[in-house]
UniProtKB/TrEMBL annotation:
A single GO cellular-component term on record: endomembrane system
Organism of provenance: Aegilops tauschii subsp. strangulata
Domain of life: Eukaryota
Descriptive protein name: Methyltransferase
Length: 157
């Protein structure tokens, strides 16, 4: 409950296996399920997880996953995706080409905002899980924006 189900988990696993990124970033980890899925897909690939509350905090209340080989920017070390100095952080992890990084967004922020931030940082491989514009009323999904802008080369599930 309150997390990815089987079909989205499989989709994330499949895309990570297919892309074979040099690094994986997740924005929004909650209890660590998506971290676990990424780890199962790519056992030796580094993961950076940005999440306000560290998944270990949930271990006291029930199942959660904490990856020993993941760099967590969580709790007092939390930084929002849009505020990270990606060039510096990627270099720290030995990554010079952001186009070889997979970014997974499950942080319930605006897809368009995250798309702009990721593009500015040079990321090309993005997966969105229930990210949407916060606030009231209707919102444009990335699919609607791309369809109306005649953007092609984007896959939708």
């Amino acid at each position: 409950m309150h997390g990815m189900r089987f079909d989205h988990s499989f989709g994330l696993w499949f895309m990570a296996r297919w892309l074979k990124p040099d690094l994986m970033i997740e924005s929004g980890a909650f209890k660590g399920h998506s971290t676990w899925v990424l780890r199962q897909a790519m056992p030796n690939t580094r993961i950076i997880s940005l999440t306000p509350r560290h998944p270990e905090k949930y271990l006291k209340k029930g199942p959660a996953y904490v990856d020993g080989n993941c760099t967590y920017l969580a709790g007092k070390d939390f930084i929002d995706f849009g505020s990270v100095d990606w060039e510096k952080l990627l270099m720290k992890h030995g990554i010079s080409d952001p186009s070889k990084v997979l970014v997974f967004f499950d942080d319930h922020q605006s897809e368009l905002k995250r798309l702009k931030q990721a593009h500015k940082a040079g990321f090309r491989h993005l997966i969105f899980e229930d990210n949407y514009d916060t606030g009231t009323g209707d919102h444009y999904s990335l699919r609607q924006i791309c369809d109306q802008s005649h953007i092609r080369g984007v896959w939708w599930t």
